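Human: Note token order:
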Amino acid sequence: MSELKISPELLQISPEVQDALKNKKPVVALESTIISHGMPFPQNAQTAIEVEETIRKQGAVPATIAIIGGVMKVGLSKEEIELLGREGHNVTKVSRRDLPFVVAAGKKWRNHCGFNDDYCGACRN
């Protein structure tokens, strides 16, 4: 599979993740399906936030990944996690082949684990 190239204006890496990458700290990529489809709100968002805190306590930086408003986000805010949790099944699953449509539509999309590898590669570039 070829490397995913993402235009900078379509990829938003949180300041926390940017700092970790710059300083060669460990970053843990987290898929967002569990937030939107794993449990009911508010347990889904609370669990995701707790998982991120557990990762921080272990010395790594969490990077929950989703597409919100047509922007691919690596490292979500608490508000973005809660948004995905509230939206639940209204958030659509996306894979690499769906990217042009997803970004153009400007909606909220969750991603699956395999797609996180593409995001992570794009962050290194």
